[in-house]
Please model this.
Amino acid sequence: MECAGNGRGQTSPRYPSVPWLEEGVSTAEWSGVPLARLLQRAGLRDGVKEIVFHGADRGFDRGAEHDFARSLPLHEAMREDVLVAHSMNGAALPPQHGAPLRLVVPRWYGMASVKWLRAIEAIDHPFDGLQQAVGYHFRRVRGEKGEPCTLMRVNSLMMPPGIPDFYTRRRTVSAGPIRIQGRAWSGAAPVVRVEFCLDGKWTDATLERSQSSCVWQSWHTVWQAMAGEHELACRATDTAGNVQPLDPVWDLSGFGNNAVQRAFVTVRG
Model:
């Protein structure tokens, strides 16, 4: 599960809200009831086009007071892997993760997984709530309609080695072999390749096979660290041919930044 704004803190000019760097992503084990079974049990009428999910959180956005609500097209809502979840990692949902019930929509950005779920509504027309019709769209310039945020873009992260400096985030390590590992994911298609970059030279890392399309994949490589200043990076490619860009693709709200992660490392002799 990844926030649509994950990485927006690395764009310039930076969007003022929630300046994520790379930390707005995680994976968990969810337990619940497939949404499709609830809808089948409820008995949908003919002509239903979208399923709307109403959360209990209320606030202001763009000057409008409203409850958070999002919809899914019926065919997406009927996917067997879409859950109404009551547990996370074997325990009841904590409040910050949407207790007592939340939606979990694998492969979509996190805004689709509505938390604090209080109502599910079937409608025969496109939902026009603020967070659906106006919010969560990719836009390059102010005023354009843009494209809705849906599937997560191909992305990867590494666990930077060594000890970090508080202000610069530069890492320090000792020379020698260092295991570099990380995670890769894509909502559009399975990840098929991860590359590791040392000072501009890309090589293939070892990508572990995923047991499910709903979780990220592990990868690793070994870096023979030599004394000096170095730049590390990683990038993923999925089976649909999507590759992480080297630099952020501009978005007005900082959504969908999947540019390669870079880490600057000082190696001591």
